[in-house]
Specification:
Layout lengths: L2 E2 H7 L7 E3 L5 E2 L1 E2 L9 E4 L6 H4 L6 E4 L4 H7 L1 E4 L3 H16 L12 E2 L4 E2 L4 E2 L4 E2 L4 E2 L4 E2 L4 E2 L4 E2 L4 E2 L4 E2 L4 E2 L4 E2 L4 E4 L4 E4 L2 E4 L6 E3 L4 E2 L4 E3 L6 E3 L4 E2 L4 E2 L4 E2 L4 E2 L4 E2 L4 E2 L4 E2 L4 E2 L4 E2 L3 E3 L4 E2 L7 E3 L8 H12 L1 H26 L7
Parallel strand pairs: 4-5, 5-6, 6-7, 8-11, 9-12, 10-13, 11-14, 12-15, 13-16, 14-17, 15-18, 16-19, 17-20, 18-23, 19-24, 20-25, 23-26, 24-27, 25-28, 26-29, 27-30, 28-31, 29-32, 30-33, 31-34, 32-35, 33-36, 34-37, 36-38
Antiparallel strand pairs: 1-3, 2-7, 21-22
């Protein structure tokens, strides 16, 4: 399947204005990288450091920013936009709609739907899925094979749940959300009371509230709250294998990369990013626009926007062991330094007293 350049630009005009320079009748067969693109491919250049590859690219058309316009026009056809990376994201959505159109809505005969559940218009339910009593599925939503939708669950219009997603009782998912395979929303939070050497379970009586346009990666787990709800606001993006503890609150358009973990009752603001494998400890607060590097451990609240890193740099093992041994002695060195500073101050005081005119003449 091919698309004309003119049709591509026109299809995206309502979301991003692009200036097409070159043959509008050029047929595009696929999207590609700048390096691998051929004469029927459409690619993009979003960073100036790759400008040197532009002249060498065989791409039929390149999406570029205004700064690269002259170089792109000299090479061939191009689409000039303010944000090439955003435009390329829109292109991938267009390509999926054109080449992988959604299937006709249907309810598979093997799916179980409780008579008390409510399904909106155009809902799809896959094979062996289960929809419990009181669940509400919004219009155009798609529930794939082997999904489990618990009692009193709400799933908003046009949301998509891939195979084997579990949404536990009482949880809510907004509109246009995407939940990938194996995700579990609303499992019990990790709550126990220590009593006489044993752990006594604290029943988790809250739920999970997820806003609109949220995407949740494969095998990610979002625990239900102990008393109040765990909340993910609009536009939050979670990668695969992310753990969100009970009563966590995540603000709008915050993104967490793979294997990140957020402990219970932590609050993360809007427009934050948390790198892969990073950990936010429980009951902490991160302000809006806080960015945490991969593999960092956040041990205190961060109330000022910025980029934060907390990790020990990788090194060869022998050097790392020496540095680790030195770190273990830092508390001893600190005390010695305090004593040295105290002694210096005492000496300075004695010296000043002997030279300020108050001491007797020899």
């Amino acid at each position: 399947m091919t698309l004309r350049l003119a049709d591509i630009v026109q299809s995206l005009a309502d979301k991003a204005q692009g200036e097409l320079v070159g043959n509008p009748e050029l047929l595009i067969e696929r999207l590609s990288t700048l390096e691998a693109a051929g004469p029927r491919d459409l690619t993009f250049l979003s960073h100036p450091k790759y400008l040197g590859q532009l002249a060498q690219s065989a791409a039929g058309c390149v999406v570029v920013g205004p700064a690269a316009r002259e170089a792109a026009v000299g090479r061939g056809a191009c689409i000039v936009v303010d944000d090439p990376y955003h435009y390329f994201a829109l292109l991938t959505q267009l390509w999926k709609r054109q080449h992988f159109p959604a299937s006709t809505p249907q309810i598979h005969p093997s799916a179980f739907i409780d008579p008390d559940a409510k399904l909106g218009a155009g809902v799809s339910i896959g094979a062996f899925a289960c929809v419990a009593a009181g669940a509400v599925i919004g219009s155009g939503a798609r529930i794939a094979e082997h999904c489990v939708i618990g009692r009193q669950v709400f799933i908003g219009a046009d949301s998509r749940l891939s195979a084997r997603v579990t949404v536990a009782d009482g949880c809510r998912i907004g509109e246009r959300c995407i939940v990938h395979s194996g995700a579990v929303i609303g499992a019990d939070g990790f709550g126990f009371a220590a009593h006489e050497g044993q752990w006594v379970k604290i029943e988790q009586l809250g739920a999970v509230q997820i806003g609109n346009d949220v995407e949740i990666g494969a095998n990610t787990c979002i625990d239900r709250g102990a008393l109040q709800d765990t909340v993910l606001d609009d536009g939050v993006k979670l990668d695969n294998l992310v753990q969100i503890g009970h009563n966590v609150r995540i603000g709008k358009h915050t993104a967490l990369a793979g294997c990140a973990g957020v402990a219970g009752s932590a609050t993360i603001g809007a427009h934050c990013t948390v790198g892969g494998g990073a950990v936010v400890l429980g009951h902490l607060r991160l302000a809006d626009h806080v960015h945490v590097s991969a593999a960092s451990v956040v041990t205190r609240s961060i109330l000022k926007p910025g980029h934060y890193t907390g990790l020990f740099p990788i090194d060869d093992n022998a050097a790392w062991e020496k540095n680790a041994a030195t770190l273990k002695q830092l508390h001893v060195l600190r005390e010695r330094l305090r004593q040295a500073e105290k002694s210096i101050l005492q000496i300075q005081g004695t010296f000043k007293k002997n030279h300020d005119g108050h001491s007797p003449n020899p």
